[in-house]
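Narrative summary of target 7.
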Amino acid sequence: MEKQYDVVIIGAGSGGYIAAIRAGQLGLSVACIESNPYAAADDQPRPGGTCLNVGCIPSKALLASSHLYEQIVHHTAEHGITTGDAAIDVTKMIDRKAGVVTKMAKGIEYLFKKNKVDFIKGHARFIGVQDGVYGMEVSSNDSVQRIRARNVIISTGSKPRQLPGATIDNATICDNAGALEFREVPRRLCVIGAGVIGLELGSVWRRLGADVTLLDAMPDFLPACDSSVSKEMFKLMSGQGLKFDLGVAIGHIALTAEGATISYRDSAGASRELVSDKVIVAIGRVPSTEGLGIEAIGLQLDQRGYVPVDEHCRTALPNLYAIGDVVRGPMLAHKAEEEGIMVAEIIAGQTGHVNYNAIPFIIYTSPEAAWVGKTEQELKRDGRAFKSGQFPFSANGRALGHGDAQGFVKVLADAQSDLMLGVHIVSSLASEMIGEATMALEFSASSEDIARICHAHPTLYEAIREAALAVDKRALNI
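Modeled conformation, tokenized:
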């Protein structure tokens, strides 16, 4: 007999597994289905999705290792610390990263058991809907089972966007997954795409000694960022040795005995060639919906391949939801998590909600860039009157003590009401600092509210208060 659930989640990535856990907490019968083994040693599907297995978590592990190596090699002398010749064991670094991923994946499976979630390993596809109940077939290597669900959440995530004329072999031409598995430092590395993924992966291998060039079709660097952040990050990333060629048009990539030759036209239209040992293609991601059998239930995708949903992630079909990278909005793990919680609570009869205006963005380079809310360009485009305050970390005692006083905090507030509209940070710990700014926007704080809150001294986050004070031109330490 086919087993029936209150909720079935297709995809155990950041949004899917969180939705499953929350639904289990709320007393619903839940199954979460995953088909991707993500190169697990036992070749069995495992939870966590792209973020845990080949994205956020492994890349941050490598960023941490490479940052520590660079600090030892280049930045201990100023602290009076003398070291001998440092060496990097790339294989050990990669193995450590893999250990972190495996530990977290096992942790998710434990949480499934704790919350009575059935974790089904296999590929799910719809086979129909009858009397408001969705039928699905789940195929694994050696079996096929059918299950039914009153509510279904599609959380199938995204996959790397393909570059025409470039075949990903994850040996010479790599996507984000292959770039996490290098067993030696390439002498020359070309990264196609100077966005978040390209900058982070390029930074890892540049720190370890690679000559890194980033090519990007966009004429502007980090165009989604506030212009002040884009300008500062370009200056700092270039100063670290990353090379950029923006506004290019990639022609083709030819494999050679040495690696690959990338042919392209630069922003002036001139033909160029770049020879590289490795190529990382990081030109964005697209929603993944192949093989879901959506035609069996009459679900239509939009022109870009996304599942159309409303503000509560409902599709056009009853009791069918979609979350995360497969729907509109930023492709961020924490955005998917919030949507998963919202949908689980709605299914349980509660009132779920996501404030899409208060979702933080982070680039985990060194320094990091983090922001939440509106940029100055957006406010000018919308015709909204605003005021701005900025405070540099070069005037922050904790940053100077750390020996890393790059960057600033910028606060944007409404010109009349003083409502905080956006906060933008470039700092070694911007990822941790953006939390205060996100909370401020969530609770509709004014810049005066932040300026009146006592911030501990000495800390980096004092700079947020100083920037809030600077909105009314009364910063105390500049």
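The mean pLDDT is 97.
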